[in-house]
Design goal:
alpha+beta; Arc Repressor Mutant, subunit A; six-stranded antiparallel sheet; two-stranded antiparallel ribbon; 29% strand
Length: 254
């Protein structure tokens, strides 16, 4: 386990006379070393090994590593004691309708799964307005949690008009709703109108996602339309930003 050439023997990078605390300097040096020399599947050096390589105290090393853990740069797997680099979050592409919660996870080497935690029939005037339904229309309400490697990463509530899919309760709701729509709707889904915002998590959302109350989360709302311009689904999803980063392409105005 060797240091990259630019770090080997160059401990002058740690300046004891600097006003910057030594553990902050070490934290920056460790991040550069870890990113260059290790992968997300490698065990990172122990506190003892880092102490010996950089000639600093165990307390300084521990404070540097604690800071990296708090910044989510490195993680300590539950099954093992050695630190590892955090896997990069999946890039969630906003400009598509399908695979919104699964495809990017699969591409990132993570195992996605979905659990339905509530299924009911409701009359909700605000939801009906989003779906362009009459105020008294009845919708199926499906509340689900999306997981990556058994860790909750997104909480989603979907509303679907009962008249559109009256047999919905007989379907396997752990699967993609968009795939279900492709098979069962009278017209194909062709567009979605959505909004994204960042806000603080509620008590319930925090419990679902394993976060502290008031943590900043990503919230996405979307109405999906069939090619006859009839709304088929309205959903609101809250996501743990630790696992998501969003990517889109923008163009200059013509």
């Amino acid at each position: 386990m060797s240091l990259p050439n630019e770090f080997e023997g160059n401990y002058s990078l740690l300046d004891v006379a600097s006003p910057v605390p030594l553990f902050h300097q070490l934290r920056d040096l460790l991040e550069s070393w870890f990113q260059q020399a290790f992968t997300v599947d490698d065990d990172l050096p122990t506190e003892k090994e880092i102490t010996e390589k950089f000639g600093v105290s165990r307390i300084t090393v521990r404070r540097a590593l604690d800071e990296m853990i708090s910044e989510n740069i490195v993680v300590r797997p539950k099954s093992r004691g050695r630190l590892r680099l955090r896997k990069l979050p999946p890039v969630q592409r906003l400009n598509r309708l399908r695979g919104f919660f699964t495809d990017d996870l699969l591409a990132a080497g993570m195992k996605p799964s979905t659990k339905t935690i509530n299924f009911s029939r409701v009359v909700n005037e605000r939801v009906n307005a989003e779906l362009k339904l009459s105020p008294s229309a009845e919708c199926f309400c499906i509340e689900r949690l999306h997981y990556a490697a058994e860790q909750p990463i997104a909480h989603q509530i979907s509303w679907i008009p009962v008249d559109l899919l009256p047999e919905l309760e007989t379907y396997d709701l752990s699967q993609s709703l968009m795939a279900l729509f492709d098979k069962s709707l009278p017209h194909p889904i062709y567009k979605g109108e959505q909004q994204l915002l960042v806000r603080n998590s509620t008590i319930e959302e925090s419990q679902h996602l394993g976060l502290s109350v008031g943590t900043a989360i990503i919230s996405v709302s979307r109405v999906a339309f069939m090619d006859n311009n009839q709304a088929a689904e309205y959903f609101v999803a809250t996501m743990n930003p630790k696992f998501y980063q969003f990517s889109m392409t923008v163009y200059a105005d013509e």
